């Protein structure tokens, strides 16, 4: 019985994080239509690339790569922190190939965690399943309680 209760508690936490993602003004407007799924130690975000996501060279702007990978790694990290809101301490990305259109998917995964920091990676894939970017971030607890936000 205890395991079932714990599992349900974690699912409620994951759904709360998904609501938090959708409530952010940037996700309601610029990343409208994006989808997130949070699970244990992981998060996936999907977005259909639109012209508004392009730079002057008619391909997806690096800011979109960064935002999706940072968010995927962030929410993967948040999946293991139920009490406090977390912050990105640092995030490093690598651009591998351009994206012009189609669906893209960022997959974030926690790779380590200690008392002070969580480290997570994210990979960004195009519609054909090719890796187009990857990143690694360090995330820390804020002083703000998660319950005060969602």
Element pattern in H and E? HHEEHEEEE
Query: Rough shape?
Result: globular
Instruction: Indicate the CATH architecture.
Output: Roll
CATH class: Alpha Beta
Q: On the 0-100 scale, what is the average pLDDT?
A: 93
Instruction: Give, in spatial order, the strands making up the sheet with the most strands.
Output: 1-2-4-5-6-3
What does the largest sheet look like?
Answer: 6 strands, antiparallel
What is the total domain count? Answer: 1
Low-confidence stretches: 1-8
Please give the count of helices.
3
Total number of strands: 6
**N- to C-terminal separation?**
27 Å
Q: Can you give me a brief rundown of this structure?
A:
The two termini are 27 Å apart. Strand 4 (102-113) and strand 5 (117-125) form a beta hairpin.
Would you kindly provide a written description of the structure presented here, covering whatever features stand out?
This protein is of the alpha+beta class and 150 residues long. The chain has one domain (2-148): Hotdog Thioesterase (Thiol Ester Dehydrase, Chain A), CATH 3.10.129.10. The chain is built from three helices and six strands. It has helices spanning 2-23, 25-28, 62-78; strands at residues 35-39, 42-49, 84-95, 102-113, 117-125, 131-145. It has a six-stranded antiparallel β-sheet with strand order 1-2-4-5-6-3.
Can you tag this structure with a few keywords?
150 residues, alpha+beta, Thiol Ester Dehydrase, Chain A, six-stranded antiparallel sheet, 29% helix, disordered N terminus
Strand-helix topology:
Layout: H1 2-23, H2 25-28, E1 35-39, E2 42-49, H3 62-78, E3 84-95, E4 102-113, E5 117-125, E6 131-145
Antiparallel strand pairs: 1-2, 2-4, 3-6, 4-5, 5-6
